[in-house]
Design brief:
It is built from four helices and five strands; from the N terminus they run H-H-E-H-E-H-E-E-E. The protein is of the alpha+beta class and 176 residues long. The chain has two domains: 86 residues; 79 residues, PDZ domain (Pdz3 Domain). It is rod-shaped and about 105 Å long.
Length: 176
Amino acid sequence: MQNEMLNLSKKKEEYEKEIEELTTFLEEKGCGVHGSLVDQDGFPRSDAYEIRIARNRLAILQTDHLNLMKEIEKKLFAFYQSEKKSEEKPIYNPFAIINAVADECPAKEAGLQKGDEILFIGSCNSMSEVSEEVARFVGQKLKFQFLRDGKEMVVFLIPRIWDGPGFLGCHIIPYK
């Protein structure tokens, strides 16, 4: 991709240089791109053929330059789209995985599922801090940041006493 972009950039510079040279040539002739090819008496200029050739080449170059710029735009868009997709990957690695979710518990109600890979529970991101963090948030909203099928997700749940063990209703094991 990099070599291809360098080649396109070099080609673009070549086109622009030749366009500038032809424009300068036509301006020096005193007729520019749209000026008349006949003199004051209505006779063709002696350099009319050179001017027509230069104008024709200029028109071709401008069209080629426009098409080249469209190609560069498409390639840049594709490049940055692929970069954007790679940037969407999470910055943090999972520290735990949900091994089981009980029915009618805070975790199930929040939408957590078996296999969710936990990035953060509140502000903690290590197994040693989970119990303490959950206990601090009993009765309050607790943020769960996790991966599901490679996509980063966030849910809020309220740890509470329910019919089963713990405050969440899910079994969390260390991520391997």
